[in-house]
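Ticket #4471: structure output looks truncated?

Reporter: J.K.
Steps to reproduce: submitted the chain below (610 residues) through the standard prediction queue, then opened the result file.
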Amino acid sequence: MKAESGLDRASLLEAVLDEDPQIREILEGSGDPEEARDRLLSYLAELESSLRFEEGDDRLGLASALRAIEVFKGIVSPANEELVRFSALSALWAAAHGMEDDDLEPGFFEEFLHIIRGINGKGGIGVGWLSDRLGPDLPPDSVWGGRKGAVLRSRFLDRLAEEMEAAVGRYPTGLDEDVIAARRENRRRILSYFAGSDADWDDPAWHAEHVLKGEEGWRALQRLVPLTGEEVASVRLAVRYGIPWGITPYYLSLFDFDSSDRSVDYQIRSQVIPSLHTVRAMIEHRQDRYRAFDYMRERDTSPIPRVTRRYPAVAIFKVANTCPQICTYCQRNWEISDAMVAAGIPDREALTPALNWFEEHEGITDVLLTGGDPLVLDDRTIAYLLGRFSRMEHIRHIRIGTRVPVTIPMRVTDKLAELLGAIIEPGRRDLSLVTHVESPYEVTPELASAVARLRRHGIRVYNQQVFTLETSRRFQTVANRIALKRVGIDPYYTFYAKGKDEHRDLLVPIARLVQERKEEARLLPGIFRTDEPVFNVPGLGKNHLRAAQDRELIGILPDGRRVYLFHPWEKGIVPVEPWVYVDVSISEYLRTMEERGEDSADYESIWYYY
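Returned output as attached by the reporter:
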């Protein structure tokens, strides 16, 4: 991060005003915010005009400056201020006139400092964040030609590949020999605690019966692994108030049993141990959780119980209402009452109305079986479901959304894989499995074996990574993609975590996901980066974050959070209202990453992704 990090508000304000003398004069010399708006918009129009006639070598810097100008104009637009319900321009004007406002935090000024740098072509996008690491002797573009140029280019690409490999090497995988050995010892400790055998460990039913949850699971967790003070407080509070949490014995073996410092297992722990904020939010809304936590408005998009439909040709069928363990980023935490609870596993009679609905709606060609986790159902029930769908001529594809390959990979038996593969009829119907692998530390020999069993029966396996604070370090998602491909899983989506308040501790700025796609994922071969970064708009569905025309940055709040206007996927098809989303502060995100040992200078270009 540049020198302005850590400055107080007064110093940051001065930095903002010093960055562009004309903007300083506009803010300090205007009698009121409206005069400042008129003068600022005129200045930005003149600047844009001059840039469009400018001749220079830095075309990338020019494009970045023009984009920043559009963003700045949008932020000071009266129409956008009305949507945001806050005037950032008025706040800037007042600050420039010495009017104190305790609500304005450093992140507010840091956003405008970078916007002003951006409009003046100082964002550094054209230079690139890796240039310094690659060295000062990069050959100029003029030598890229002929065999000599090809050799120089190849040497440069070697150095770029070395940088990527070094960055990826920071993240251990579950396939590393030392990790396998440590987890073998963890398994021994877990089996000893539960008086289990090696045969028990290979039995998925044993793992389902011994899920750590409630008071008994809390006792086991304390005795088996070292915990931080916050982990102790959050699980203890969850147990006291009956807030669902759960960890399978297999997944517990992925923890670091020797230390609670989260130096290597931070993603694993954050996946299943809720933060204090999350637990407190769940407690606060125990009586109205169906209203408070239904972020995707499934109650408004469910034409019949168990079915959710947001698109014309695909619908969700929630065939179970429980999971082997509870993910902290769960979209449906308002529906899941506990891990592996019998009441969440329906009988055939409970599934029949939804199956009849699918028969009657021939526009549905793709069905997503989810929940909960559909693989908590026994094989006979799964066979019944697939049999019903196989008789529906309009169903061309079935997806099974499950984290079982990651939480109880032993559940993916040869028998189950054969059962699933039997539904496939080339030329008529296909079936695939979609899972959530969050980090390379979750990619284990057991997961690899489960995937291999599925692939032997023609079942393709895809991954939907949820991009959270714990998976957002530089090249961490690149490392995950590489590990996934090693075991035969294709990246499918990278989801921005649902922007629910109870998930606040997991969220990252939207700009970080866009930055990852451009500056990190792009270094991989295309076959490794087949995932699409998406944001789920409540009640509407996926918005592709690479499509800049589908969102607008419309405001900056006093605490530095960006406000976006997301356009619906139906844009250009039918009229649907857009949706306003308040993002996570980039300033706070970078400070958090620094606290976790990252160099925020490595993320500096994040400010210029809108």
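Triage note (M.O.): checked the attachment and the full token line is present. Residues 319 and 351 are 7 Å apart (CA to CA).
Status: closed, working as intended.
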